[in-house]
What does this fold into?
Amino acid sequence: MTSKRHSSFCGSAEHSLDRRAFLGSGMQGSALLGAGAWGLNALRQPALAEVLKQKEKRVILLWLAGGASQLETWDPKPGRPTGGPYRAIQTSVPGVQISELMPKMAGRLKDTAIIRSLNTKDGSHGTGARLMHLGRRDEPNLKYPDLGAVLARELGRADSPVPDYVSFYTATEGRGNAVGQSGFLGARYAPMSLTTENKPLFLSRQENISIQDHQQRAQLQALFNERFARKRNLPAVASHQEAYARVRGLMASETLFDLEQESQKTRDRYGKTLFGQQALVARRLIEAGTPFVKVSRAWWDSHGQNFETHLELVTELDHVMSTLLDDLEERGLLENTLVLTLAEFGRTPTINGSLGRDHFGQAWSVSLSGCGIQGGSVYGKTDQDGQTVADGEVGAGEVFATIYQALGIDHQKDYHVGARPIPLTDPGIEPVSEVLA
Amino acid sequence: MAADPHKLKISKQINRPGILMSIARLPDSHRLFVGSSDGKIYDLDIMAEKPEPREFVGHESYVTGLVHLESQLVSAAYDRRLIWWDRESGKQVRTIEAHQRWIRQLITTPDQQQVITVADDMVCRIWDVKTGKLVRELRGHQEETPHHFPSMLYACAVSSDGKYLATGDRVGHVVVWDLATGKELTTLETPIMYTWDPKARIHSIGGIRSLAFSADSTRLAVGGTGKINNIDHLEALARVEVFDWQKQERTHEFKGNEHKGLVEHLVFHPENQWLLAAGGDHNGFIKFLDLEKKNVLKQAKAPMHVHEFTVNETYDTIYAAGHGKLVAWTLTD
It folds into this structure.
C-alpha cells in the first residue's frame, strides 16, 4: 500500500533557510529594487533552483472551499448505494484506488498520502473552515494563528523581502470562512490576501517615478537609516528598517504574480482556469521563497447535482494538482514543498433527491503530497458505505501535527502568550506517523 | 373517457430503493421496465397488488436509458454501454461499448429501426437496432464549456415523422439535424439554462436536460432550469422554452411560477393540447403547459424528483421514475 520515497527532512542546521545567501549569491543586492531584477525568470530553469531545493521547506495549500466529496476523490465506494455513479480506478500504487475523476493523480500517487479517516464532527461551513485552518477550536479570549501564519513564522525569515503568506480566494462564496488569521502572532504573519486580481493591488511603482529614481531614493533612505541606527541600537529602529525593506521587497516581488513571465507552454500546461493560473503563481511564489501559499478553489457545496459539480471541479483539481506536483518535481522542489488538499468537511455518502450530497464531517479525506510525506501511503479506513470511520480515526489536530512534522517542525513546540505556553497543537495530539517519510 | 389534466391524480405509487433514472413500458399494459442507480433494470407491473420485480443484471452503473422494441429491450448506462436484452428471458443479446463517457439518454426512432444515444463524449450516435452497428455519429457540441470545464451532452429527441433529430448540451446549445443524412440544419441557444456563476462559485449546475418535438415537428421544446443565484441547490424555477426551430425563433418562454429544479423530461400531446414537463429539485413536479394560451394548464407536486416518464397510448396515464419511487398518474375520473 505504500511506496517508500526518499526522506526529505533532516532538520539540520545546514538545511535551515538561507534566502539571503541565495539572493546574495544569485543576484546583486542592489538589483533588488528593480522590477523583475530578482532574476526570477532565471528560476524557470530547474537547475537554478538547486539552492532552494536543498534548503527550503514550503507549503501550498489547495483549499477546496465548500467541501469536496471524499467519495468522488480520495475514498470512492463503487457499487455501493452511496457510491454514486463514478468508478474507482487503480492508481500507480498497488492496491490503492481513487475516483475515476482523478486519472492524472492516479498515475502519480507516488508522492501523495491520503488520510481517509478524518472525523471533525462539524458540518458547518464557518466553524468547520475555522477548525481546518487553525487545527483546533478557538478560545473565547485567545485568537490562534492559522496554518499559514504559523508556517510563515516557522519557515519564513524576519528579513524576507517576499511575502511569507499569500492567500488566493477569488470566488465570493465562503471567503469569510477561510480565516486568514495570524492571531496572537500578530499582523506580521497575516496573509497577503488576493481576492480580486491574481496580483496585489497598489504594488506597482508609480509611473512618475523612474526605476533610477526609485533606486536612488532607496539608497538614500538606506544611508540615512544606517547613520541613524549606528548610534541607536534599539528594536524599534530595526523594526522600522525591516518594514521598509519588506515593502520594497513586496514591490520588487510584483513580477512573481505576473504569469507573462512564464512561457506559454508552462501556462498552457496549468490550464486556462483561474485555479490553474493561481496554482502557477503559487509555484512561482514558493520558488522565490514564499513559505506558504493558499490557493482557494471555491465552491464545492454540491447540495444539488453533486456529480455534475464534481465532474467539473474534480477534473480541474486532478489536472491542476498533478501538473503542480509534476512541475515541482521537475524543478527539484517537490521534496521540500508540501502540497495539501484540505476543506471544511466532506460530503454525505447518502445521495439526496437533487442528486446532491450534503455537509459531512464524520468520515472524510485529506491529502498530503511531497515534503516529508510517505508517498503512496493510505491511512485510515471508512466503512463500506463511507458513513463512519472504521479504522484510524483522526481529527484536525492530528492532521496539523502531521503537517508540522512533515516540515520538520515540532508539533509540541510552545509559543508564549504572556507567560502562558501555547503548543502548536493541543496537548495529547500526535501526528499520523504512518504517512510520514 | 377524455383525458383532462385538471383531473390529474396519483393512481399508484411504489417506493423502491435507489435512484430510478429511466423507464419504458410494454405497450397496452402497466408493465414497466425501470433503470436504477444500482445498475439493474427492474421489470414489474406497477398496478399489481404486490409487484414482484424481475431483475436484469448487466450494467455497472446508473441505467439512464431504456427503450422497448418488439421482443427486446435496449438499455444505456453511465457505464458507456448499450445492452440489448431478450425481454422475456432477461438474457443479454448484445452489448456494445457505445461511448467514451456517460450515456445520458437513449431514444428510438418512430419506425423503431434505429436507436439514438447522446453522451458526455459530446457525440450523438445512431445505431441500427437489428445489427447493433453504428449508422452515423453526429458531432456538433463542444467538449469544453467556454470556461474550460468538461461539457455534457444531456438530451436528444426525434420528431414524430422521423425526419429531425435534436441534441442539447450543458451550455444551452441545441443542434437540429437531418436524421437521414446527418446534416446539421440549425442551431438554437438557451443560455440561461447554462447557469454559469462567474463570481460567487465559479462553476455551473444546469444545462439542457430535455427536448421534445411537437407532433407536427415544427416546434421544439427545451427543458432545463432558470437563472440560479445559488448554484449549491437547484433553486431556480424549472424552465421550458419552445422554438419555431426552422425560424430560429423562440415562441414560448415558460419561466415557471411554483416548482423549482430541472425539467428532466418533456412530451407533447399528439394534438398539441399540452406539453407535459416533469422533473424537480429535492422535490418533484409535473406540469401541463398550454402552448396556445402560453400558460400553465395544470401543475402538481410529485412525490419525488422525476427523472423520466412515459405516457400510455391514450395519453391518460403517466408513469414516472424518480428518486426512490415509481408513480402512476391518471387524467381521468
